[in-house]
Amino acid sequence: MSKLNFKNKKQILVVKGDITQQKVDAIVNAANTSLLGGGGVDGAIHRAAGPQLLEECRQIGGCATGDAKITRGYNLPAKCVIHTVGPVWKGGKQGEDYLLASCYRRSLEIAAENQIKSIAFPAISTGVYRYPIAAATKISVTEVKKYLENENTIESAIFVCFSPEIYDCYQKSIEEIL
Ligand code: AR6
Fold first, then answer.
1. pLDDT tens across 8-41, in order?
2. Residues 136-177: pLDDT tens digits?
3. Ligand 1 contacts CB of residue 35 (under 6 A)
4. Contact between 154 and 118 (Cβ < 8 Å)
5. CATH code at 116?
6. Is the CB of residue 156 below 6 angstroms from any atom belonging to ligand 1?
7. What integer pLDDT is reported at residue 5 of this predicted model?
8. Spatial strand order in the sheet of 80-85
9. Ligand 1 centre and the CA of 29: distance in Å?
10. Which domain, by its residues, includes 164?
């Protein structure tokens, strides 16, 4: 685990592990536009939260790429789930960087609107959607840093790394950016 403290007492943490186990106010889900579940982290979150999560997602009616929606967390230790839809990597010239940054920004905005103080992120788009991990972690660290420096509600952001490769990329991005 590594931890970075900002002057304003806010912090960024990088941890190895499973996001469904995180005891935070909100975890972020790397969903698809239907919000009706899938594989990867989305599947793990739905399994751990239980069927009521899918029921609530059905009421929302989907989410655009780059945007985010909030639900309760049901059986998860986290109180809420913020579902965001990352871009599918298509070579990098289809606005993927802008859309991925938007996922982090919108998730943080929705978290703040809901008085969330701690939020955990998976590496959005880096699985089935094939976004190159090193590029993705740079974008996520940049966006989260910007937000924590300028806004007040959220106190801690955690990057939850499901593989050693993702963990290493987060460490490098943090060294470069912070
Ligand atoms: N905790 C933390 N991170 C995880 C976990 C976990 N339990 N499981 C996987 N990851 P992916 P995407 C990491 O494929 O690329 C779904 O089917 C994984 O190692 O889950 O945004 C959706 O419904 C990877 O680094 O999401 C969409 O259709 C990261 O989470 C599509 O996949 C994201 O991998 C979204 O694709």
1. 789 999 999 999 999 999 999 999 999 999 999 9
2. 999 999 999 999 999 889 999 999 999 999 999 999 999 998
3. no
4. yes
5. 3.40.220.10
6. no
7. 82
8. 2-5, 11-16, 156-161, 118-121, 26-31, 80-85, 68-72
9. 8
10. 2-177
| Mean pLDDT of the region 60-86 | 98
Q: Is 162 in the pocket of ligand 1 (CB under 6 A)?
A: yes
| Ligand 1 in reach of 78 Cβ (< 6 A) | no
CA of 42 to the centre of ligand 1 (A): 6
Mutation choice for ligand 1 from 20, 162, 163, CB with most ligand atoms inside 8 A: 162
Task: Give the pLDDT band (50/70/90) at residue 62.
Answer: very high
Q: Which atom of ligand 1 is the closest one to the Cα of 166?
A: 25
Please tell me if the CB atom of residue 40 comes closer than 6 angstroms to any atom of ligand 1. Answer: yes
Q: Is 26 in contact with 76 (CB distance < 8 Å)?
A: no
Catalytic: 42?
Answer: yes
Do residues 117 and 156 touch, judged by C-beta distance below 8 A? yes
- Structural domain tally of the chain? 1
State both tokens at 32: 């698809």
